Amino acid sequence: MNSSTNAKSYAKVVENGVQAVEEVNQLRSNGYVYDDIFVLAHDGDRSERIAETADADQIGLKEEGMFDALANLFRSRGDELRAKITSMGFTEAEAQFYEKELDLGKVLVIAKKA
After folding, report:
1. pLDDT in tens, 16-37
2. What's the rounded mean pLDDT across residues 66-73?
3. Lower CB density within 10 Å: C or N end of the chain?
4. Where is the General stress protein 17M-like domain (predicted)?
5. From residue 62, how far is each of 29, 70, 93, 106 by CA, in Å?
6. What is the Cα–Cα distance from 5 to 112, expressed in whole angstroms?
7. Is the four-CA dihedral 110, 3, 67, 35 of positive or negative sign?
8. Residue 90 CB: number of other CB atoms within 10 A?
9. What is the helix (H) or strand (E) element at residue 110, kind and residue range?
10. What is the domain partition of the chain in residue ranges?
11. How many CB atoms sit inside 10 A of residue 106's CB?
């Protein structure tokens, strides 16, 4: 299970955008780069604003693949978030936990080495 292809992403739930920016900066100082760091919030616009402020990425086509990215057009936001989280290597149960945290207004910072 130590194979890099099975390497699990790092994830941390934070309370707000300010903490998300601090976490992204900490990850940068630990060697992660722009393409390795992702920010998710329940509100898509909020995800985008925090990602821009933190100079982090959003989970998109490259990470999800064409099928999931297209399927997300027809999913609820909760389903879409869980699909994005599982596309980063997390289990469905972990994705459900993180999505519930996002539902409470928290922000999820994910880091995954390419």
Report:
1. 999 999 999 999 999 998 888 8
2. 57
3. N
4. 11-105
5. 24, 12, 23, 25
6. 11
7. positive
8. 19
9. strand 107-111
10. 10-111
11. 18
